[in-house]
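Problem: given the chain below (438 residues), write out its structure.
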Amino acid sequence: MKKILIVLALIASVQVANAQGGAAAKKALDAAIEASQNAKKATKVATWTKLAETYLDAYNAPSANVWVGANESELRLAMGNDKASSSENVELGGEQYVKQTYADKNLYFNSKGQLEIIEVTKPVVENALTKALEAYKKAYEIDTKATKTKDIAAGIKKIVEKLNGEAYNAYTFGNVAAAERFFERAYQASMQKPSESIDTSALYNAGFTSFSAENYGKAKILFDQCLDLGYYAKDGEVYAKLADCVAKLDTTAAGKALQKDYLEKGFTKFPQSQGLLIGLINYYVTSGEDTDRLFSLIADAKKNEPNNPSLPYVEGNIHAQLGNYDKAVEAYEKCSQIDPNYEYGFIGEGLMFYKQAEEFVEKAQNEMDDAKYMALVQQFEKALKGCIEPFEKAFNITKDENIKSSIAEYLKNAYYRFRDEDAKYMAGYEKYNKILGN
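Solution.
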């Protein structure tokens, strides 16, 4: 009981402290600003690091007694007399949240009842993070003996983290332009000496949000900076985005040549990238250029990595996209010859047949001639049966439960079509229906 009372006493003291948090932070900030304006004190590194820290404290003050991941019960204890003025259900990015409104902030709780987003609506001071960064910059300039290098670098790192947090919040709220500004500021802050590392992911996100806002010129500049820094994002996505930017900005022959150059350079580095592959296929098909160039790129990659099963998988995808289905099957099946435990070749083959079946269904639904309709139904059934064997092999090979679940869904649908034709199809349907928990 004594321990519990001590904990409650501590919580009470936190409530009192945070009730005065905003005012106290403003008072401390005013004092730090006054010190920085004093000619004698302004020559000291500590004056500027203190100013930066008080700006950060001011930035944190409205949310000082709340934290992401907390539930409402925990926050009621921590926030004391700070009560929500209203509560409502809202949708953000397709997700449902409960929004609680306070005097200086909005709190968003997810479907699990956990606090996921903190939105400060009444900051203690505007642009606190920018001003904190400026103070650290000044501290670094006058710290000629490098006595506070680590402290300054650590402070800048905090600013970068908070700018990224603001960017993600803005993106969640649908304010893509604001998200882009915050991401770019995070990247620029990470470049401020003596910061220890450049935040290339923030740079990429700035480019991505610029692209989403259809500011393709700005996005291209940012993505080019990514390449300059040797940052390509997952599977070389930077190259794919640069090609997309060029396609939007320049439809001349020179623009198309640059688009092709980005795609080919990216594909050479990341031959497993589906985004780059699709971009290349679309480019060659729409441009009328010889698609054999795609296979020469794959051949070059195979020379460098003859034992990489993802390369014949990509080759199979190219053939499938171009309608060379027999060659696609041949390429897909080479995957397991290189690595018997590589499931994606069988997945690619299964998906190819399944998609064919869907296409035949769509054509059949629009066909008015009975004979042609029945011919399409037969083609549909042949393609649907064709997906079963490769999907079965992939299901037995993969150890990824999510992949197993996805494959089971395809197999369940395929077996269901033929369940009255043969007992083995009914057994297959029942097997995968049970696996899926239906």
